[in-house]
Fold each of these.
Amino acid sequence: MATLLYRLGRFSFRRRGRVAAVWLLLLVVLGLAAAAFHGPTGDKFAMPGTESQRALDALAKEFPQASGATGTIVVAAAQGRKLDPAAIAPVVKEAAGIPGVVAALDPFTSGAVSADGRYALVQVQFANALKDVTEAQREAYMKAGSSVTGLRVEHGGEVLNAAPEVGGSEGIGVVIAAVVLIVTFGSLVAAGMTLLNALIGVGAGMGGLFALSGVVELTSVTPVLALMLGLAVGIDYSLFITSRYRQFLAEGVAPEEAAGRAVGTAGSAVVFAGATVVIALAGLSVVGIPFLSVMGLAAAGTVAVAVLVALTLLPAFLSYAGARVLPRKQRTGESAGAGGRGFGYTWGRVVTRLRVPILLAGVLGLGALALPAQDLRLALPDAGTAAPGTPAREAYDLTSEGFGEGFNARLIAVVSAADPAATTAAAGEAAKLIQQTPGVLAVAPPQPNAAGTTALLTIIPKAGPTAAATEDAVHAIRAKVAKIGGAEIAVTGATAVGIDVSDKLADAMPVYLLLVVGLSVLLLMLVFRSILVPVKAALGFLLTVGSTFGITVAIFQEGHLADLLGVDVPGPLVSFLPILLIGILFGLAMDYEVFLVSRMREDYVRGDAPRQATINGMGHNARVVTAAALIMTAVFGGFVFMNDPIIKSMGFALAVGVLVDAFVVRMTLVPAVMSMLGRAAWWLPRALGRALPDLDVEGERLRHHLTTGAAESPERAGVM
């Protein structure tokens, strides 16, 4: 593989104009396609096979007027005053007049008035599903009740669910990344070129994703996740190849040859690292959850594009930059580098000398940080976790104030039978059983469809949407109504859907974790031709995941230091965060494992003693890995400033995971373990060695070709 990539690097360097033109043309084409075919995103977390999804499907067929998007307008009178029908009437009339609204219920008719008469809920039913509600309809909905004076009117409900906006706060990560690149390279040209290369890759990847959004339904989180990952790995992959190119230039290798060797060696590690991220993300498809599969495949696509850009467009940019990628002192011959006196060498010597206490401290410390993870709770976010001051949050809080948390967690029991009589009997029996269920506040009278074969029971829990008591109540309701014969009864609603999603993801997480760990052992066995190195890498990954979960739970669920991150209401983590985190961190952890350990193996294969090879690996790559980890942390951390709770928690967890894995696991525990294992680290049974293909990630065969004249000599490579 290294030899093939070496040729690709030299070709891209030599044909820089054509390569750059192809990528720029592709970027323009994908941008135009995105503008032409861009489709809406939404927050529909469909879960085929679950009870809540079956009930929603039945509603769409038997009760279509109740299957569209819904909204809730909360009206409150001044302190000490009561509402009356005349005061509410204008709100109901304006809501009913919104295009696409099939019904707006008068609270005095539906009984949605608080006991003290001060609060009322106007239920608004749209004809279309959420993804088909237009911005004009949302704007009209937000204006309903604006003519009323003397009353507080807040608008909430699922109709307000919209994609999170990617604003200027995320650019903080890019700015920090630029600063880190400048400090690392000591060259504005090298830093700017690396960043530009990554941004082009992100632009191409996002253009392709949005072009497909017209035919593939995306959740609102999917583009943000793809942007987050594509930007982070794009910068890192370009950083690794540029660093190796600069190293070859400093050694006196001609520019074209240096580009070929950089792509052949560091590029091999980039291909493997990118492949692990892509496989881990695409592997989310095995969970069997459509929105998660699309999310994983979309992010995997942007990572794949980042790899292609780093292998092809970057050498073309290096050709344009020439020697200007080096600091001025190196270009003028004033500095020969730090040799073995750099911090990486010093840190490698310290870690290998104090390996036992460092291992104990690291493992025990990460184990302690993982302890809060045992209390992990999962749920889909609701309006109660929205940013303070947003319409959805204001409506949620006002509803809780006037009616209690449970009115924000309403459930629907769908009762279906062959004839109206059976439906009526089953609905009546179900209402009695549900009312007696612990955690249930009230059950509304059955609402039949026109044929009388399907009836809806609105259920009000006592607790909020993400409360453990509400989850227990849903399971208890389902157990009770399952005993009713002659009808099919299913519980659904946004709260029930969230519970089903969380349960299925929680069940899938151990299986996926086992798949990822097994995959890491197999892939690293192929790369390093070793048994113990992959096992060590997998155990380190488990430490990373456990401690990251623990820290995230402590802040976002338990509320410790929550104010520092703007977490207004601590609560359960978003249900798909843990499984996404496992997939993403696996790929990123393997990045650093490959970049560090491949250099250790490279020096070991060339004859260095195991301990010295470990120190050399740290000395050569510690600076670059440090820069890469800081860049990834900055990019992910930039998303913590978003108001959307899903993106905030995702950005935080990824930033913490990268810090833990890069600095504690890979740059501290890995060299400690490698020095302890010695030559045993590279042991591989002969039979297994013959069966496994030799991927040549460290470029040993490439060096053999270069030294035996199979490749062109540096003198023939050509200089800019």
Amino acid sequence: MHALEVVVVVGVLVLLGTLLARWVRLPPPLVLLALGTVVGFLPGVGGVEMPPDVVLFLFLPALLYWESLTISLRQIRADLRVISLMSVGLVLVTAGTVAVVGHALGLSWPMAFVLGAVLAPTDATAIATVAGLLPRRARTLLRAESLVNDGTALVVFGVAVGVAVGTLDVGPGGVAWRLVASYAGGIAVGLALAFAVTELRRRLTDVRLENVVGVLTPFVAYLPAELLHASGVVAVVTCGLTLTQIATRVISPSARVQAAGFWSLTTFLLNGSLFVLVGLELHAVVEGRSAAEIWTGVVATLWVALTVAGTRLVWGNTLPYVIRALDRRPAQRLRRVGFRGRLPGQWAGFRGAVSLAAALAVPTTTAAGGPLEGRDLLLMVTFGVIVVLLVVQGLTLPAVIRFSRLQPDPAEAQEELLAQREALGAAQAALDVRAAELGVPEAVVARVREAHEARERQLHLTQVLSDGRVTDPDHRAAKKAVLAEAESERRLRLALLADKRDAVVRLRDLHAIDDLVLRRVMAQLDAEEVRLVGVQPED
């Protein structure tokens, strides 16, 4: 197929697969992967091959950037040791255990380490689809690990491939030095770009240009870092995390609203497209293979998949006890999690498109010009492990989460209430001063103050109910009745918005107003609806 045809087919499959996944109540990655696999074997569609650079230089920076903008830096700092051990230590251990198994299955040691590096990192795309099922801390640990471990794995991958093709000769010390240099360089590039972007956006007044800078940022971070032989992954993540802290006061509200919509849709399409493309690749992976080769690949896949999943489970159930023996501080004791609580994170070790892209990037020939032995087996095993882990872990993860009995993080809701009440208090305190500066009539000030006070009462009642301190049944029922009344008002306002829209559209249809006027008024009504939906009280 031509490139445009591939784009259309992939887009349609993402739409159909997402709808089908909701209908059959299966994880979307599984359904998208299955659809891509089926369509890949249809006449005229097979033969689609995903260039590795498309994933590594187009998909990966964009997805990592948005993930880094929407993750909690405070939580990362609190769990930095665990995240570092998972994103660096576990990657290296997994690469080693998979290399041992790969060598036992017939691969040379260099190619076995290539396979280990390919399958060592978890996939941020797949994890993003299940992270919402987990409490804040468990969710942040998974997302932070998947943000960084690609950088570790790609460094090991580059060294292993260089040794396999005969262009590089380094020992463990050389790998360690490359890791340190890669991370240090990536952090430096990310920090430098974050401050440059902040200064540039401080001087821009056009919302469109602001968001052009935002769209370019992950790619401008990734490419220079890679050209400097640093980690592009670390550069993107560092840049994103830094911007969440220093650019909040610089980026305009209009730009933030526009960017949120853009990145939400873009990352949804990129995530879905990756799973479809992985499925489409199966045809190219098995094409021309004999039955014996495919059977060998299936057996090797099962062994390697078991090794990948088993290594993660063993690591997750031994390292915490080592840390406990060494660190007995009271603060660390409060953060300890039992076996049940750790299990979802250990089981959510999906592999995805980055692994497949890395496998496809392995050269077909050595530096001497001969064929690179073991590449075909490596490619089949990589694809097989991706599918096996997605199917097995994806189907069973909801049950594992139920078994773990993870409790919601009560602090998250309390912090949101605190932020809303603090913002409202600041507005109330500044109301008279701002009104005097702007020359606002007292009647308008009174209406705004009354609205603020009503909202403050609602937030107060919500907090009282949420912290569980109310025990008197009559008192609690009265409070709930007040909140129910506020919810009724909110629903009435939302229902009236539909009538407002109908009236405005009717004016346009009667040629009483222009389409431009229609869009402006509709935008105001849409903003009002977003505000009403955003303040919906939680049960």
Amino acid sequence: MPSPRLRFFALVALAASLSPLGTSACTSTSDSKSDTGVGAIVFMKRVHTVADGQGVRINVSGGNGQVIDYERYEPGGSLALLTPPRADGKLVNLTAAFPQADLNGVDVSFDARQAVFSMKKDKDDRYHLYTAQLSEGENYEIHQLTAGDYDDINPIYLAGRRIAFVTNQMYTEMGTRSDEYEHARVVTQLATISVDGGDADRRLFSQNLSHTVSPFLRHDGKLGYSRWEHLGAVNDVKLFTANPDGTNMIAIAGEHGKPSNSLINVREYQPNVMIGVATTRNRTIHAGALIKIDARNQADPVCLDAKANQAGHACLDEEHVIYTVLTPDVPTMSTPSPAGRYREPTVLPDGRFLVSWADGPVNDLSEQSETPPDFGIYLYDAASGRNQLLYNDRATWDLGAVPVVARAEPPVIGDLAGRQDTSLPVRMGSIDVTQTSLEDKVSGGQFKDTPLRTALKDAVAVRIIEGFSSEAAKGVTMFGLTMHEGAAVLGEAPVYQDGSWLANVPPYIPVHVQPVDKFGMSIRSQGLWIQGVPGEDRRCVGCHESRTGQGVPRNGQNPTIAEQRQALNFVQAVGDRFELPWDKNETASKPYVQQILSAKCASCHNASTTTYYEVSRTDPGTGQTTPYKIPVLDLSDTKITAYYDQQVKEWNASYVSIFYPSAMEMGRVTVKGQVPKMWGVPGSARESQLIAKINVKAKDGSTAWPTPLHPEDKGTTLTDEERRVLILSMDLGGQYFARQNTGFVPFTSGNPVAPGTKY
């Protein structure tokens, strides 16, 4: 008797052999005369169920466990052209010459004569870019554009015969960026090629520490894209835009709240008005609710008129985006859906949308229950909220439908990257750090619920911090008991009397900034990575100024003081950048935290003087409960074992004492006893109780807290530099490891980075 899996596959195969069309759900209709208003569509067919010598294999979540992963491969996919796009249309397999292929992204050229797509020809290949002519008279001719030992996916056409896409190409001599939070997943970055030159004209954009995916074309010729933003507690997918040469990377939606964790599969259909998918970060197979994203400046009537001339108007307002969930019955989390889930909407000329839709719960549990979701191509009408079935092959996922119709080509934007020397730095700075639109409050030290715009008046410098991930730390997949990646201080630029600052930093790398006060503590830690290409000027008005207003220096139209005194140079070799590991540093001249705690603190705060509380973790698979004793305040280097982020590892008792309370995963561990104070708050020294206890004295003799300096009140002295090290440890995110103590041999001033090295 055949197994349940074989019986299931036989049913799927039978259904597919009877008809390429699936049945409609209660929210959809089927009509063989469906009219999309276009002559043809091109889309991808991707296999999810395979029968082989081992039986039946259903691959739903492979490579798609997170919302923007890309590694899922099953043979038998194809690029399909359907003319006209309805049940009785002619279906052409454009990639019939590659029967073991899989596809990962497709777009149609502005003149509608060509498609660009990503294809992996067989299991031994990588995803690369190809073009296919869409005319039978041209024999649907296919040309390969990219090659190499990396994956290129999600291509789109840009103006000026260029193609943007995402790639996991090795970016630095240390390797491809590897997202630390997800334990060394190789992440994707943006790149472009030309239609005519292919890899001969390949350019990589600046780096992010997590995935970049799903680029889309904007009305102004720029590209938009989804970016997984992970910086400490920030862990979501936002929308960004950039010029086609990689300059001016800025957020366009998702930074100031959204109805879901992630915004993906976005397409613009009016200037700054988009449709996309709202979903959670994992377990939904890239699928979710359809959402309208309106990022127009609502205060300017010109910006609300799609036909008006918007020149000179600040029409993008990412701070006040309006989100409208078009399919409210579809959850934006990973919970089972009563109305299926959507993927990859694209826009038809009449304003309706082509979508991929599958009925049922649509998450990776579908794989475990041997019922893979069935994505077909539908016509979605936002006015009625209904789907109309166009095509569905039950044996494949039918995804990424694009209308084959000519469209206007946006303007070509100037190409900075094509002209500049790659060794040039990026210039960063602010006109006036106190100009902010954020309503945050600041507490700790001299502040108590102080408005950010007031607290920023205390800024005396801006700290610039490089971010790096596990490709730079051999054998390390987590930098500590916090969700912060690796960090290196590039420098601290002084804030002058007019609030200005200016610095030159290395190109391509992700950085974030912290305005700091006279005590050396961050006033607010920026929660967004920023980066630039060589020669780019990334100066802003202030610390998140109004996105629709005009920023003016305090001294009128005159150059800022920072400009008059010129930018500080923070470009230096990797090994010369200041990193701060907790324990041990192979570079003798650089400090580490434990040596201070052992010399000045552990004699009073150790295993014999501390108390303990207990946490326990129950394994969801075996049901076995394991207890762990956590010291309240043991500042010695004694090794203890702790559970964190699904791993059991050994750490210094001091490190666990200080950071476990703030890093504790409620819901994954059970606490017995009273949780101690937040001795260390990753990213915020001023909120860390350890810093409040030792207190800090500025050069003018004032202290941050009205309490005695400690341990001076017990007869031991901490130097100003030792206090700075402890403050930096908190402000940088509480890393345990750094590049210098993980076996990585860094570049140093004696062994500098070669000119043009993108790091």
